[in-house]
Design a protein that fits this description.
Number of helices: 10
Radius of gyration: 22 Å
CATH topology of the largest domain: Rossmann fold
Shape: globular
Number of strands: 14
CATH class of the largest domain: Alpha Beta
Amino acid sequence: MVLSSGIQFVTFITSGVPYGYFIPDVPSTHVFSHPDLGLNIFAGVYHASKVRATRVAVLLDPEHFKESESDTVIENLMHKRIFVKAVKGKEATVYNARNHIEHFPYDLLYICSHAGEIDGRRFKVRFKDRYGEPHVFVIDHAAGIGYTGEGTGRDAKFEVMNFQRFVELDGVDWNDDQGKEKIPAGELAEQFSHISVDDWDVLESKDIGPVRYCVALKLTDHFLLIMFQSVAGYEHPIIFNNACVSFYQFAERLIYAGARAYIGTLHGVDNNKAKAVAEYFFLNLTREKPLPIILWEAQKRVWPNPADRTYIHIGCHFSNIVEPDTDVSEYLKNRLRLNLDKWTARLNTVSDLRQKEAARRTVEFLGAQLRTGAL
């Protein structure tokens, strides 16, 4: 792709292809054309014009790397009077990280970890449809498991996130659209989705390598699957995922969950290079310079060869990290209380047992943040 030398910046509206990678001499950003282009742009405009400041940041680092950039990131954000909630080391468990990513009211999330698709199992499962007719699904399955902190030994309680990918139905490859037209594939899949994994009638199963599209973060106890309905208590944050191969499904799912901007990588990154990009990025934050420009400058500095530049920015071209002009402690307390009230109301109204249990744990998490020093 060749662009005029007079072009200073490019915004690509794309279904996922990171076109900016192919024009490394021009800074760029990307906005996903689906599933909700309008909401993503609105979130960017609203924060730039109304909220403006970056008030709260969450830093997630299970400390897999001996010398990470986390302390530098924290130092620079605190220097700008941004409140930083660090979830590091033993605190960076699947359960704790999931709660912070979904429910803590932050404007910025920084992730320092390993990322990618995880291994799973392939199952051949028999089930009967609503008319009693038998069918056979072949399904790839993976799981993320987090200890909730409740119970010990055999009585310990775990939270499990399941990922399922259809491979075949009655011998028809799931990617064969013409073949699926001959059977009610959508209807059968919908019926099957209501069956708990515990109730599967398994005919065969075997271990397999990475499950396609099942992306996760490696934390201290297990893997956190990136499967969120919302992030940051609906605050529409910026997310910087400084891990290998953290673009692809990560970007789409986190933007869909409400992030207004996302930074990730297209392929593997040397630890020292990743650290250098992050340190330059956070050392050079200014009100005048948007994040895609700073990211572009950081990559030029770290990689003289344009083909090695792997970081991609998703979101409006004017996304920025701006220091607040007031103390944010009261804002954070009020936002936590508001979220706590909403989840308490949900706990008192939902009847489904699983939803009720999820609401109870969220209420306990938010309450603990108010009681035990989140502020």
